[in-house]
């Protein structure tokens, strides 16, 4: 097998590892919000434990990237592919961390009754999960149009986040327990908003791979 063939095979394997990690992270975010909505501490604890698997996958991808750089000495476009893969893995790991943050809040609130049924938070979760899925598709397809479209989704998440924060603040009163729960929900909304930002980071990476130019999708 010649050097270029070996390189492309290794890059394909790297991409498959990223997609596998992305699928687990996508599931983790969905389960975290589900655990919160149902105050299911068993599901929440499962998310916390499985974060170690995702962390291990990130380290494996990091090793693959560094090995490719050291052994293949890639140039220009090839180096952009490897560097972006490393950054995507970091964004995915941070998204997983936010899923854990949400799961820990579900554990803290376990045994309580939610002040009101969750509506906007699950809606935000659906949007960010769609963004994550689209960002990974844009990466596998090297599709800059799909990547750029993430900016509109991010704006939608930001608007929902702003509206939700205003609603939660308006619901606060002098009751400590009530304010404690509402504060936790504010953090959940913040974590989901940050997930959306990490998804736009992935989209920016795709645009950089294809064009060699930086484009800010999170304005």
As residue ranges, the low-confidence spans are none
Annotation, overall tally of beta strands: 0
The major beta sheet can be summarized as: none
State Rg: 19 Å
**Helix count?**
7
Short overview:
The chain has helices at 3-38, 41-72, 76-109, 120-141, 144-148, 150-171, 176-211. It is an all-alpha fold.
Draw up the topology in text.
Layout: H1 3-38, H2 41-72, H3 76-109, H4 120-141, H5 144-148, H6 150-171, H7 176-211
Helix pairs in contact: 1-2, 1-3, 1-4, 2-3, 3-7, 4-6, 4-7, 6-7
Describe what this molecule looks like in 3D.
This protein is an all-alpha fold. Helix content is 85%, strand content 0%. The longest helix is centred in the first third of the chain and has 36 residues, at 3-38. The radius of gyration is 19 Å and the shape is elongated. The mean pLDDT is 91. Keywords: Cytoplasm, Phosphate transport, Transport.
Main attributes of the structure:
7 helices; mainly alpha; elongated; 219 residues
